[in-house]
Structures are given as structure tokens and as C-alpha cells.
Design a protein that fits this description.
By secondary structure, this protein is α/β, with parallel strands linked by helices. Helix content is 39%, strand content 18%. It has 5 helices and 7 strands. The chain has helices spanning 22-33, 71-83, 121-131, 137-152, 158-174; strands at residues 14-18, 37-42, 49-50, 63-66, 87-90, 103-107, 110-114. The strands form 2 sheets. It has a 5-stranded parallel β-sheet, with helices on both faces. A hairpin with a 2-residue loop joins strand 6 and strand 7. Helix 4 runs antiparallel to helix 5. It is elongated, with a radius of gyration of 20 Å. The mean pLDDT is 94.
């Protein structure tokens, strides 16, 4: 089963990460990069909340990442999140996820993501590396300029507007 690629704005979204190991730290970094307000709950001292997980800890969160070393606990967290319609990612337990973290390249507002539906993260990391020469800083800047042009062309016929934007893009890429 493939996951549908779905981009959502998580700015100020309340995210809970249960666990504080290296994988949890990577998920925390990604969530924060995209603007989520992250709370880390773990038995480790380097957490926002240092304690054992309890079901009521899910209250008020929109996204949860279960990143503990205990697969049974991750499964328990996932089941409860699913009951509450909270997006959940249980690391290395694809069947317990309602969303997955893709490998991605981000340049300003341009984001290219690669997913194997949780089957092979190494393949996705390879795709990311191979495409970093395409999704460059300049592409992010071109996107900003194209947004301004697109606003100016609001009243132009859809197909004509598309052709103008396409020509601008190719001209910018040639530079």
C-alpha cells in the first residue's frame, strides 16, 4: 500500500514526541523546521517532560511521534491516537502509522519529498541525494519571483498564464 503524498501546514501545530533517542531527535528537528510546537516526553533527562508515558499525555496534541525503544508502547500509543483521530508516526512500525516522514529537500517554500511507503528509507535517502542538484537555492528564489508574477497575472486566461509562467521559469533556469 502506498501512502498518498499530502503536504499540510504544521506551523504552530502541537506535536508530541514520545522518546528522546537519535531517531526521536531527527523527528523533532524536522517538525521544528516546519514550524510545529514540539513537546518531548521521555524517561530521559533531556526531555521537556521527564516521566513514563500515560494515555492522558496525548490530550491537546495534533501530531504524535512514538519513538521509544519499546515496540509495544509505540503500538499502544498508535492505537490510542487512531481512536482520537490524531496523526501518528510509530518509528519502524509502518502498520502503526497514519503518516510517515519522507526524505525531502527543502529550499525556501519548495519541497520535494521521496517515499517508499515506509519500506526502504535508504532508497529515499538515495533519491534525495540524487535530486539535490535540481532542487537548489536558486529554485526557491525563482519560486518567490514566480509567485509575484502569478499574482499580477490573475486576470489572464488560465492556459495563457501557465505558458507565461512556464516561459519565465525556463528563462530563469537557463541563467
Amino acid at each position: 500500500m502506498a501512502y498518498f503524498p499530502f503536504f499540510i501546514d504544521i506551523t504552530d501545530c502541537k506535536a508530541l514526541v514520545v522518546g528522546s533517542g537519535p531517531i526521536a531527535q531527527n523527528k523533532i528537528k524536522i517538525l521544528k523546521e516546519f514550524g510545529a510546537k514540539v513537546t518531548v516526553l521521555s524517561k530521559q533527562e533531556n526531555s521537556d517532560v521527564t516521566k513514563e508515558f500515560e494515555i492522558q499525555d496525548l490530550d491537546g496534541f495534533n501530531i504524535v511521534v512514538a519513538a521509544t525503544n519499546d515496540s509495544q508502547l509505540n503500538h499502544k500509543i498508535s492505537l490510542e491516537c487512531k481512536k482520537r483521530n490524531i496523526l501518528v508516526n510509530a518509528v519502524d512500525q509502518k502498520e502503526d502509522c497514519t503518516f510517515i516522514f519522507p526524505s525531502y529537500i527543502k529550499q525556501k517554500d519548495v519541497v520535494a519529498a521521496f517515499s517508499s511507503s515506509g519500506k526502504n528509507p535508504v532508497l529515499c535517502q538515495y533519491l534525495k541525494k540524487e535530486n539535490e542538484s535540481i532542487v537548489t537555492r536558486q529554485l526557491g528564489e525563482i519560486n518567490d519571483r514566480m509567485e509575484m508574477i502569478r499574482k499580477e497575472l490573475k486576470s489572464v486566461d488560465g492556459q495563457t498564464r501557465k505558458e507565461i509562467l512556464k516561459e519565465f521559469l525556463y528563462n530563469q533556469l537557463e541563467k
